[in-house]
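User: hey, got a sec? need Membrane bound FAD containing D-sorbitol dehydrogenase folded
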Amino acid sequence: MFAISRRRLVLGSAGLLAAGALAQNLLGRAALAAPDAAPTPGNFLAVSRALTGMPLPDPQLAQRLYQALLPRFPQLNPLLDALATLLQRHDVQDGAALQRQLAQHAAPLTHLYHALISGWYLGVIGDADRPECIAFENIVSYQLVRDSLTPPSYCPGEPNFWVRPPQKESNHV
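Assistant: Yep! Here you go:
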């Protein structure tokens, strides 16, 4: 059996605690020193505003969606420009007409349109066999109905409900 004195146990625990605090501090500085992702281009935000109908879509979701689309669409920015031009010429609200117009263009433009709609409204992009979830509670589908519905969850309240203290009831039965 291995015997250890209280003094060694306390000193060892204090040493581990100090090492953990130092490592956390160094890792935090390394994370802050990491370069930020490239800013989301204006053409992406313009197309996103047109597709979602929201004047300012969630900036974090926009950044995540743009970064997730970059490897899937090598010519992303020219495709975004072409999609912006198409959306300016046609009414976005008439989905059937827009689908007919998209069918007349190259397949990557149609795929980009579907990826953008799926990313903004469902929070998922990619093929059915390899989907990638990029968001949940801040997707457009939930933002449009947030005054009456909350995202489905195992949680009884809206997201982050636990940060507010419960309301006191004045009438007790």
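Quick note: The chain is about 55% helix and 0% strand. Let me know if you need anything else on Membrane bound FAD containing D-sorbitol dehydrogenase.
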